[in-house]
Amino acid sequence: MRASAGAAVRAAGPVLAAYAASTALHLAMLALLRRPARGSVQDHLLSWDARHFLSIAADGYPDGFSRTPDGELTGNELAFLPLYPLVSRAASAVLGASAGAGALVVAHLALLAALFAVHRLVLGLYGPRTAAFAVVLLCAAQPMGIVFAMGYSESLFLALAAGALLACRREAWLTAGALGCLAGLTRPTAAAVALAVAVAAVQSAAAGRRVRWRPVAGSALACLGTPLYLLWVGDRLGRWDAWFRIQQAGWGTHWDAGARFAGFLPDALVRETGWVPVSTAVLVLGVILLTAAAWRGPGGCVPGVLPLAVYGTAVVVLALGQSNYYHCKLRMLAPAVLFLLPPARALAAARPRTAAAAAGGAALFGTWYGASMLATWPYAV
């Protein structure tokens, strides 16, 4: 028990340092780059989708479809899954704070939990140096890491997803299934979590050469969250496809197997001159290449890495396979984790001074990019 407690204390240092430094950098960059006419730092952190979450927390969900004055169907809060706004409302009530403050508190506590879970997960796979660099890259260096500090559901989703993967490694199958189910009530991308839990269960069955009920039950439980919510929306509105219709009407979102994004890439790289589409295209291509490198590199052979690889790849596929706005893609890719492992492993293998300088430079770029996009191109989230 003493050894376990000592290990936990040692692990807390890198995580808390990464969280504190990344939060300070994100807020400082946003304060520096924001335009006062567009509101305060808190206004930026609670912009766009955060307003929908706050509306759900305050007033619940609408009773039906929403339409424009011309009678055309448009999006509404039913497009957003319930766990994050419900937890935010509870936090606001407990703290006696505003809805916005409650939402930000939940986001930051979830980010801390996510960083601890990711650190522990990567620590078991690759060792302490890679784990430390992974959490730095996750919260500070990736281009839209600022979303984890906003009133968005990404930090809560990542905490649940990483917790489910960690539970799979410990063969706590019912815990993994419960966390996967909760992730499914947070973001529809939780299909990636359910797939990873199922892969881990199959691995366990193959290793033991027998099927046990707990891995099967955990896998089934992990699949339930999002379908249950979609069924609830369908029952509320009287149409089985109600949620899909709202997504399409409000945000043009449907599954197109990446056709819209594939059409965007050549335009951005060949014809566009604006820095937002060009940088988005280059950075997303970088994510794709790093995801492939995580499979092909030596780390891909580490025992136990397959569920994480499946999860991260599925998040990338789900993010890029939808027809929604190109400038939201980097935000949607933020919880994938997998593409950060090749650079984290490279930093871990480098000399300490070189690694520290490279990680620091990456953190400055990531925090600048996210704050710049939020301040000058608010559609990025």
Give me the number of helical elements.
Answer: 18
- pLDDT averaged residue by residue: 94
- Radius of gyration, in Å, reads 20 Å
Uncertain runs are none
User: Helix/strand-derived class?
Assistant: mainly alpha
**First-last Cα distance:** 44 Å
Number of strands: 2
Strand proportion, as a percent range, falls in: under 5%
| Overall geometric form | globular
Give the helix level as a range of percent: over 70%
H/E element order: HHHEEHHHHHHHHHHHHHHH
Q: What kind of oligomer do you see?
A: single chain
Strand order of the largest sheet: 1-2
The major pleated sheet works out as: 2 strands, antiparallel
Q: Explain this structure to me?
A:
This protein is mainly alpha-helical. It has 18 helices and two strands. A two-stranded antiparallel sheet has the order 1-2. A hairpin with a 5-residue loop joins β1 and β2. It is globular and about 60 Å long. The protein starts with a helix and ends in a 5-residue tail after the last helix. The model has no long low-confidence stretch (mean pLDDT 94).
Jot down its keywords.
single chain, 381 residues, two-stranded antiparallel ribbon, 18 helices, globular
What secondary-structure arrangement, pairings included, does this model have?
Blueprint: H1 2-33, H2 41-45, H3 49-59, E1 66-67, E2 73-74, H4 83-95, H5 99-126, H6 128-141, H7 154-169, H8 173-184, H9 191-208, H10 213-222, H11 225-237, H12 242-251, H13 259-271, H14 275-296, H15 306-320, H16 329-333, H17 341-349, H18 352-376
Antiparallel strand pairs: 1-2
Helix pairs in contact: 1-5, 1-6, 1-18, 3-4, 4-5, 5-6, 5-7, 6-17, 6-18, 7-8, 7-9, 8-9, 8-10, 9-10, 9-15, 13-14, 14-15, 17-18
